[in-house]
Amino acid sequence: MNVFLFWLSISLLLYTYVLYPILLKYLAKPTKPQPQTLKHWPDVDVILSAFNEELCITQRLENLLAQDYPGNLHILVASDGSSDNTAVLIKAFNDERITPYCFEENRGKIAVLNDLVANAKADYLVLTDANTEFAPDAIRQLILSFTPDIGAVCGELHLVTEGGNQNSDGLYWRYEQFLKRQESTLGALLGANGAIYAIKRELYQPLAANTVVDDFCIVMNIKKQHYNIVYNEKAIAYEEVAPSLQDEFGRRVRIGLGNYRAFSSTLWALSPTQGIFSLCYWSHKVLRWFAPHLMLLALICNMLLISSSLYLTLFIGQISFYTIAVIGTYQINKGAKVSKFIQIISFFASMNLALAFGFVRFIRNNERGGWKRTARQGEIK
């Protein structure tokens, strides 16, 4: 049994991280050319909620106001009980295209998001973050992707890495972008990224207060209503990578918590009746979310089999892998320069450790969907 569980764990890990992308590449269909213009450009409301974002909120709103969008564009922006000058800066804008909401009480992102959408009037909503920057035609590109059967469009987020930053989140994100592009061609795109995506307002379903990964849940709810989700790599946004693994770790723990909550509410997507969408959900999401469990199972089973020379060698390999990850993470967080190989191993281990911590917090089940800011490059002294 130990032998079976060991190789099952290893096989599933190899499948989700290595074989699944190859399978997607094989299955992917050619994309249809996108129209370059519309006869009528619909009204769009941008939904932006913020908490303690005084360092970037002014620049963010200016970036949105500068969008090259031919139709009517309106921005609904809220400060969720910020303790800094976010609310003051929001209200300082004297532009009829901006409607500010400055809540005194900090209720959490989801409560604010539900309120903003309830007050929106446009048929199309663009959802984004305060620390994101759109390319000039980003909203135009998002709207061009909509057809009657498409309910949500995910844009492409480019993570910006400043010199000396050894957090490999940017490299992993490019890997994720490849998966999103391929899944989109199959009609099996799983969620969106919160920095840049658009939806049809009528399809929005209010989220539970303890939701964390709102971008994933919103889009999965739209898919459940039998609308397609597509990826548009021409709709571009930019965001800074967290300056270190340590700064990124807390965010990933929280995302992990949100992933497990989302899993419990998206069991419908596991059914084989969902076709290719179900295959992608199992392969890209479910196995990834349970990768820490598989890694731990592989290590325990391997330890119980070390009487064999083969399994002793494999056990030494696993221990060496985790040792490199621990030492590499320590060096990276201290600012020491390490090789790209060590960066990748450290990031992979850190990512899955954070996911494991998220699972523990999910089991405790005592947190609401509030706010946690991740440090950014310009904030590090």
TrEMBL record:
**Which stretches make up the Glycosyltransferase 2-like domain?**
46-186
Query: Transmembrane residues, as ranges?
Result: 6-28, 294-321, 341-363
> CDD domains, from UniProt?
CESA_like_1
Q: Which residues form a coiled coil?
A: none
Q: Which keywords does UniProt give here?
A: Glycosyltransferase, Membrane, Transferase, Transmembrane, Transmembrane helix
Q: Which Pfam families match?
A: Glycos_transf_2
Q: Which InterPro entries did the record assign?
A: Glyco_trans_2-like, Nucleotide-diphossugar_trans
| PANTHER family referenced in this protein's UniProt entry, alphabetically | POLY-BETA-1,6-N-ACETYL-D-GLUCOSAMINE SYNTHASE
Q: What does the sequence similarity comment in the record state about its family?
A: Belongs to the glycosyltransferase 2 family.
Q: What protein name is recorded for this chain? A: Glycosyltransferase family 2 protein
Species name: Alishewanella maricola
